[in-house]
Design a protein that fits this description.
seven-stranded mixed beta sheet, 209 residues
Amino acid sequence: MKNIARNVLLLFLEIISRFKMKGRVVTKLNLCSGHQEIPGYTSADFNFVANLTINLSRGKLPFKSDSIEVVTCISAINYFTRERGQEIVNEIYRVLCIGGLARFSSQDLEWIAKRYIEKDAEFFFQKLPNGKERFEGKTMGDKFNSWFYGYKTSGGSSKYFYDYETLADLFITAGFSVVEKRGYMDSRIEKIELIDNRKNQVFFLEAVK
């Protein structure tokens, strides 16, 4: 019953937010924005504070084809299955204008796998400023799983984990003309310092329609 009530509420919020967006010209879109506000961008997420409340786990993006110049999605594509990830990238391709740009980042499967293979105890057993261990679990294997899925209290919500090659495949399949790996703060996008986060543990991809 709680899930039904929550879904009804969020559907209502989606309808209200789309009504509020009516007439607003969207040229730059920040998908899965969380609480982040980027000047000049319309924020879109499954929460109450975004400009547009949207459930990205289903359906299409509520924008016309060839209508948006830039789409960003930072550290979020792993919350969806690979199949849904492809659908999302296909939708981004649809709504971008010719020459439009998409910038994604994702937690890096290759990077964390190397930390595990090398038995990097300093990384896996690191502590937060408050003294709490960053990753849950007793063993390095526990902590490796915690990095991906969550372990106990966090519950976990990630559905798929990408290396660059696999994420790039989504964009190539969608039809993007240019797909390339980029570094932290290395972008065609102006004021990228307002967008990028997590200098370590993630990789960045940019694609041009």
